[in-house]
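Interim report to the steering committee. The following record documents the input for Bacterioferritin-associated ferredoxin (69 residues).
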Amino acid sequence: MYVCICNGVTDHQIREAAVDGCMTVAELTMRTGCGATCGSCLDMAGDLLAKARNTHGLPLPVLGSLQAA
């Protein structure tokens, strides 16, 4: 789905940016152009970026690394 009509940025591109380490909406705008023209998509883009980061950004604990002192 297109999130930023002005610059042709899709939800897939936003998720890819999150996987590639994009942390903020400002960085997303720099990488993709999303929101750079009129800005009406920034709320939705920010929500998608946050959701994608939460999905992909959780490190798994290493088993056995939590030993009692």
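The chain is about 45% helix and 5% strand. The committee is asked to note this result when reviewing the revised timeline.
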